[in-house]
C-alpha cells in the first residue's frame, strides 16, 4: 500500500515537449512499467529520428534494486547486436533522473493484435510465432541472459520478423545455474502460446482448465505442459524448438 502511494506521489511523467540534455524532445508517454516510464522522443540532432527513452521511476531511483535493474538493462542492451532487439543509443543522468535511450521498434505487440485488432491465430500460426520467438530467446540464452518478462506486450510482430523489447527484468546468469534459470523464460513462453491459442476460443459458461477448453493437438498440449513444468521440463530452448518443428512437419 505504501509503495502504491509513493508511486502516485512521485512517479509523474515528464511533461510533453520537455527538452532533455539539449537533445531529446518528449513527444509521447508510452507507458509505465515496474521500474520505468517510457516515452517517444525526437532527436534534435536529426529530427527524422525518434527513439524510446526510458526513465527510472523516481520512486525507484533511491533503491539499490531499482538502480541495479536499470544499469543491468543498459549493459545487456549494449551486448545485443541483433536487429530484433532494441539498440542502446545513450545512457545518462538528467536532473537526477536515470535515463536510457534505445531504438523505437515499429510494429504491433501481440497484446495489441489480440485485444485491439481481434487477430485470430490458428494452432499452426501460433506455433510458428512461438518458434520465431524461441530463435531470439536462444540468442539470449547463449549469451547467458534470461529475459524474465516474455509477455505479449513485450513481443512485437514486425513486417517480416518478430522482436523482443523491454529488458527491464532481464538478468545475466552463471553458466552453472543457466539450466535452472531458463525455466522462467520457458514458463512465460507457455503463457505467450496460450494467449495466441485462446484468440480463437469462444468462452463457455463453465470455466475449465486450458487442456479441456482448447481444441488442440495432444502434441501441443504436451509441449505446453513441459514448458510449464507440470511434465518434466525442457532442459534448454533447443529441445523446445525440436518438438515444435517435429509437430509442424506432420
UniProtKB/TrEMBL annotation:
This is Protein kinase domain-containing protein. It holds the Pfam family Pkinase. Residues 24-250 form the Protein kinase domain. ATP binds at residue 54. The keyword Amino-acid biosynthesis does not apply. SMART domains: S_TKc. Keywords: ATP-binding, Nucleotide-binding. One of its GO terms (molecular function) is protein kinase activity. It comes from Priestia filamentosa. InterPro entries: Kinase-like_dom_sf (IPR011009), Prot_kinase_dom (IPR000719), Protein_kinase_ATP_BS (IPR017441).
Amino acid at each position: 500500500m505504501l509503495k502504491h502511494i509513493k508511486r502516485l506521489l512521485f512517479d509523474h511523467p515528464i511533461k510533453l515537449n520537455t527538452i532533455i540534455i539539449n537533445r531529446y524532445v518528449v513527444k509521447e508517454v508510452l507507458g509505465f512499467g515496474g521500474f520505468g516510464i517510457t516515452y517517444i522522443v525526437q532527436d534534435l540532432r536529426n529530427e527524422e529520428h525518434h527513439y524510446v527513452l526510458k526513465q527510472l521511476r523516481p520512486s525507484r531511483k533511491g533503491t539499490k534494486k531499482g538502480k541495479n535493474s536499470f544499469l543491468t538493462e543498459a549493459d545487456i542492451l549494449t551486448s545485443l547486436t541483433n536487429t530484433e532487439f532494441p539498440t542502446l543509443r545513450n545512457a545518462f543522468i538528467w536532473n537526477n533522473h536515470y535515463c536510457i535511450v534505445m531504438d523505437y521498434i515499429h510494429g504491433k505487440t501481440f497484446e495489441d493484435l489480440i485485444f485491439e485488432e481481434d487477430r485470430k491465430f490458428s494452432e499452426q500460426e501460433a506455433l510458428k510465432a512461438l518458434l520465431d520467438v524461441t530463435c531470439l530467446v536462444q540468442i539470449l540464452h547463449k549469451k547467458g541472459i534470461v529475459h524474465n518478462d516474455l509477455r505479449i506486450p513485450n513481443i512485437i510482430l514486425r513486417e517480416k520478423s518478430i522482436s523482443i523489447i523491454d529488458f527491464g527484468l532481464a538478468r545475466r546468469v552463471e553458466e552453472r545455474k543457466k539450466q535452472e534459470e531458463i525455466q522462467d523464460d520457458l514458463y512465460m513462453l507457455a503463457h505467450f502460446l496460450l494467449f495466441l491459442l485462446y484468440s480463437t476460443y469462444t468462452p463457455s459458461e463453465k470455466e475449465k482448465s486450458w487442456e479441456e477448453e482448447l481444441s488442440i493437438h495432444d502434441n501441443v498440449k504436451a509441449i505446453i505442459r513441459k514448458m510449464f513444468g507440470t511434465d518434466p521440463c525442457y532442459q534448454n530452448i533447443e529441445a523446445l524448438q525440436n518438438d515444435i518443428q517435429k509437430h509442424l512437419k506432420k
